[in-house]
Amino acid sequence: MPTPLRHVAVVGAGPSGIFAAAELVKRPDLHVDVFDRLPTPFGLVRYGVAPDHITIKRVAAALTRTLTHPRVRFVGNVTVGTDVTLDRLRGAYDRVLVATGAPHARELGIPGEDLPGVYSAADLVSWYNGHPLGGIGFTTDTDSVAVVGAGNVSLDVARVLLKGGAGLAETDVPDPVLAALDRRPVRDVHIIVRRSVADVKFSPPELAEFERIDDLDLVVDPEQLSLGPDALARYGSDRTVAARVDTFRSWAARPHTGAGRRLHVHFLRSPVEVLGTGSVEALLLQVTAVGPAGRVATSRSETLPVGAVVRSVGYRAAPLPGLPFDADQGLVPHAEGYVGDRTHVVGWVKRGPSGVIGTNKACAIDSVRVLLAALDADPARIDGAERTALLAELAEVEVTWPGWIAIDDAEQARGAASGRVRTKITDVAEMVAIARSSC
Length: 439
Ligand code: NAP
Hints:
- By secondary structure, the protein is of the alpha/beta class.
- The protein has helices at residues 15-24, 44-47, 54-57, 59-67, 86-92, 121-128, 152-167, 175-183, 204-208, 229-237, 239-253, 348-351, 359-377, 384-394, 401-417, 428-438, and strands spanning 6-11, 30-35, 72-75, 95-98, 104-105, 118-120, 144-148, 188-192, 216-220, 261-266, 269-275, 282-291, 294-305, 308-311, 315-316, 338-340, 343-345.
- The strands form four sheets. Strands 3-2-1-4-17-16 form a six-stranded mixed β-sheet, sandwiched between helices.
- Helix 7 (152-167) crosses helix 8.
- The protein binds NADP nicotinamide-adenine-dinucleotide phosphate.
């Protein structure tokens, strides 16, 4: 007689949740239901990865293989916490694995941050990726923008703003976003780095992308590239640090061509206030210097005239009713991914917003190893009838895998009509209607 299946609910159909599902179904006695609040799968791959990073988005093919596995079910358009409580899931599944990511932006905590014209990178990324539930669009009438933060998200935002609608026409960026980006093209993006050139988190290949953008000058003040003793040591021992520093040294040495657009990178500058009456007019920066023992504040400040400020200083997870939450760190407290009450976490909600998409694979392997050990040690079995009853109740709202395929087909057909790879549908009700009419 075949072993009866045990069931795991994964909450979140982004890369972390799907990598975990792939690990789980390596065990022949497990079945996985992957819930997502959206009718669409892939999370960050669809709504976080920059639209011009087409190669990275190809990971969706591998994620599709997992979601179409015979022992995996995609349960789209179901919000855990609203349509079904976490407690109800715990009553219907042997284990629950939460993979809801880190959707909220961290704040700068400086005066003027609430002025119109200050955006979070989280909002802008959602907007230009056509996320149906969020994303305040870039509407400020300016051609000069400051982006605060020295991570890869800052580079994504800067590149999208500088390329503009015309430079992104081949991608799946929604048409209204392309039009908004071209209404008043951004000419100057200023990236603000509070520490030294040896401390940035930019990936060297992402930096190199700017060298391939037409009609763009790269502006770096060589005086801001000095290294203290500690940074010099890291320059000598860490190839990634050396690659970043060398890139900025080469940018500082480049002659300016009088191009129509400029990327300025400012080091050792901390934002202290957003200035403006009614809307952003400038960003006040405190100048820091490199001393023998590290970064030291100076009495100097600079006023950078810009019409908009984007804060790109990291993300926080969202609290989920029924799950503990560490508000200071912006994640769920856990021990090796175990939270308690047969509930586990994986991905950014577990370890905070760090690493590239592939990092979440290793994280999923770790969380699943602990989950399986706990499952095997737990003699209590959840009655499968509870799960059947729950899914029957959710049938009215659930968008299934065939429903997603209908949405995918519709987006590709709309895109083909205008010579594009796809045109994303950004309205949930429209997506659900398309999914339903296909079943
Ligand atoms: P991140 O890499 O953690 O960078 C955040 C930056 O914000 C840091 O440079 C940090 O500086 C700075 N910061 C924090 N508070 C600040 C403040 N008050 N004032 C000024 N600067 C401040 O975060 P992220 O860019 O949001 O990226 C999240 C993750 O996604 C990263 O692992 C990233 O590599 C990944 N990602 C990868 C790609 C890609 O591979 N193409 C694309 C996008 C994102 P300090 O270091 O001084 O704290």
